[in-house]
Amino acid sequence: MLQNTSTGNAPIIPKEICKAIWRSKGILPKTRVFLWKAAHEALPVDHILSSRLNKPPTGCSICGAAIESVSHVLFKCPKAQQIWLASHFGLRTDNLLDSMKELLTSLLNQLEGQQLGNFLTILWHTWKDRCKECFEGKKLRAQQTLAAAASTMSNLQTADKLFSRITVQMEDPLVKTRYRCWIDASWVHAVERGAGLAFVLFDNDQLMEYWIAPAVAATPFHAELLALKNAIHRAIILHITDCTFKTDCLQLKQVLNGETNVSEVDWQAFHDATYTILIWDDMKQSSNLVLYSCKQGS
C-alpha cells in the first residue's frame, strides 16, 4: 500500500483506490497526481504545512476558518461550496465527511465514465483557482471555475476522439518513439487570415497535454508551420528528445523532406519557422526524431 509520510497521521489508502485514481480516464495526468496527493492528505494546505513545520495553524486564507484541511479547501470552504452547488451535480458539500480517503472511496464507487471525469476535473479546477486567489490575488467566480473545467473536459474529449481516429486509420508501424505529437491547423482567408493551431502530445498511448490557440497566418501552409513550430518549442521546454511529429499536411512533409520547393507566397513563413526547425533537426541523430505525414493528403 502507498502511504504518505508528510504528516504523522497520514492515511493509508487502499490499493484499489490508488489504482482507480491512476486508471481514471478522461482527465489530465497532472489531475491524477493532484488526486493522489489529495487522497494522501499531501496537498500544501495550512493544516498539513503547520504540522510539518511545527508551527501554529493560521487557518483558511480565503474564509478564515480555524482549520484549513484538504477537505475544507476542496469542498467545505464557502468558495468551494458555491462551485459544487452551481455545478450540474448540484451538490451540497457543507455536511460531507472530513476524510478525503472516505470521500474519494465513495466518489469512485458511485461515479464512472464521463461523470467521474467531470467531477474530478471540477475538483482540480477548484484547487487550481484557489491557488490563483491565494498567490496571485485573482478572485474568480464559481461560474468561471466551472467554465474552465467544462473547457478542459471538452478539449480532452476532442483530443481522445482525434487520437482514436488517427490510431485506427493512420498509425505507422515503422515509427516507434516514446513521445508522439499530432499537429494540425485550420485557416480561413475570409476572417482576416485567421488560423486555429493545435497539437496533442502523447507519452506512449497516454495523453500528456494538448494546446489550442488562435493565430494569424498568411496561408494554410503558414498555419501548419506555426503549429509545428509551437509543438517543437513545447517539446524543447519539456526536455523531450525522442518524439515523432505527425501531420496530415502533405505540403509540409514534402517541403521538409526537400521533395518540393516553397512557393513565393509561403517563403517568408518558412523562413520564420526554419530557425526552430533546424535547431530541432540538429538533435535528430541522437533523438530518433521523425517528421512524417500520417496520410497522403490534407
UniProtKB/TrEMBL annotation:
InterPro entries: RNaseH-like_sf, RNaseH_domain, RVT-Znf. Residues 184-273 form the RNase H type-1 domain. Residues 16-84 form the Reverse transcriptase zinc-binding domain. It holds the Pfam family RVT_3. One of its GO terms (molecular function) is nucleic acid binding. SUPFAM superfamilies: Ribonuclease H-like (SSF53098). This is Ribonuclease H-like superfamily protein. It comes from Rhynchospora pubera. The lineage of its organism: Eukaryota, Viridiplantae, Streptophyta, Embryophyta, Tracheophyta.
